[in-house]
Write a structure and sequence with these properties.
This protein has about 350 residues and is α/β, with parallel strands linked by helices. Helix content is about 55%, strand content about 10%. The radius of gyration is 26 Å and the shape is elongated. It binds guanosine-5'-diphosphate-alpha-D-mannose and manganese (II) ion.
């Protein structure tokens, strides 16, 4: 079997016939063998319609589940059951145009592991969403791209429409939760070559959206889990959390020294040094644990490199802040935030590439 199109359905009785027609019209001319696999959790008469469809057309199959529910497990179960070498996942409600699939397949044949139709590359549009959904969806995409490095270059990581080679995702264990199966696949199967092609997200004509607030909470939990299992992302967040703890150490010692009547400058310098040391100790036992040198001399070198990087980071971030504030007259709070961000990125990248290089 060449292609399996997996379609999760929950009460989509009004849409399944149309999507089947449009899919077969789009796929037949390619000359490839294909199946349409509906993964159904419906509580209405959708299963009966699917049953009829599967009798009418040999390329339609469906699995109706009564023991469990949920989009993520429906799609993952479908991916396991599908027979095609190429797996396409899409919604039943015609918001994803089936006519795009031949182009997606061509792209996979060019050598990409995954192809994502994107609403956010030139030529695409997310016209089907209202302003509120647009905002929620933008926020969700931004959080995903900040949290997970693998997603940083993908403009539409929350898409429910994608094609992937079966060989690229086989042999991994997936823990589906929430809606974003594609993110789960990219991170856990470590998918690196992704192509995006533009498409116009359509508005839903029949039936209603099943998206809810609790799904959005599950989405954040899902991203958190993926950050924890992904070495490169975990390192960055561990570094940021330790940096935050450093600020607290710094302020606490500063306050104590002031209470002890220490001069302000001395209190500031000393508390800064202590927080740098505590940051170093935490980072070398947590963030870059596996890269700490064994010999004492090596550790001392790494420690001094760390201090050097932090001091240079302070110079760079305050230099940048001054440039923004004094020359470009940027708002002082915004200058401060951008200065801090620059410092954090500098410290992380240089410590990762140099201080703790092996
Ligand atoms: N089997 C199964 N079980 N299918 C489900 C379930 C479920 O519990 N919940 C929803 N579905 C099916 C719907 O029937 C539909 O085919 C598809 O999943 C998407 O559901 P919609 O309710 O149409 O989602 P949406 O339009 O709000 O969200 C779309 O946009 C997102 C991008 O922002 C979907 O395309 C998402 O996949 C996409 O991520
Ligand atoms: Mn929809």
């Amino acid at each position: 079997m060449d292609i399996s199109v997996i379609i999760p359905t929950f009460n989509e009785g009004n849409n399944v016939q149309t999507i089947t027609n449009r899919l077969s019209k789009a796929l037949q001319p390619t000359g490839k063998s294909f199946e349409i696999l509906f993964m159904d959790d419906s509580t209405d008469n959708t299963p009966e319609i699917l049953d009829q469809l599967s009798q009418d057309a040999s390329f339609v199959r469906y699995i109706h589940r009564t023991n469990k529910r949920g989009l993520a497990t429906a799609v993952i179960d479908g991916l396991k059951d599908a027979e095609g070498e190429i797996l396409v996942v899409m919604d039943a409600d015609l918001q994803h145009p089936p006519e795009l699939i031949p182009t997606m397949i061509d792209k996979l044949n060019e050598g990409f592991q995954m192809v994502i139709p994107s609403r956010f590359v030139p030529g695409g549009s997310d016209g089907g969403l209202n302003l509120y959904r647009k905002f929620v969806s933008w926020t969700a995409r931004m959080i995903a791209r900040l949290a997970l490095k693998r997603l940083r270059k993908i403009t539409d990581p929350t898409s429910g429409f994608f094609a992937v080679k079966k060989s690229a995702i086989q042999g991994n264990i997936y823990h589906p939760i929430g809606w974003k199966i594609m993110i789960e696949l990219i991170v856990r199967a470590n998918i690196t070559s992704v192509a995006e092609i533009p498409y116009q997200f359509q508005s839903r004509d029949l039936g209603s959206s099943k998206m809810s607030g609790s799904e959005q909470v599950r989405y954040l939990i899902h991203l958190g889990r993926l950050v924890m299992i992904s070495e490169e992302d975990r390192k960055f967040f561990s570094f940021c959390a330790i940096g935050l703890s450093g600020v607290i150490v710094n302020l606490a010692i500063y306050k104590v020294m002031l209470l002890l009547n220490s001069p302000v400058v001395i209190a500031f310098i000393l508390s800064s040094i202590v927080s740098m040391i505590s940051n170093y100790l935490l980072n070398s036992t947590l963030t870059w644990k596996s890269r700490v040198m064994h010999q004492t001399s090596g550790r001392i070198i790494q420690f001094f490199r760390y201090l050097l990087v932090s001091t240079a980071g302070l110079a760079i971030s305050s230099g940048f802040l001054s440039f923004l504030f004094y020359i470009l007259h940027v708002h002082p709070m915004l200058s401060g935030i951008l200065g801090i961000v620059t410092g954090v990125i500098w410290n992380y990248v240089v410590n990762d590439k140099w201080t703790f290089s092996t």
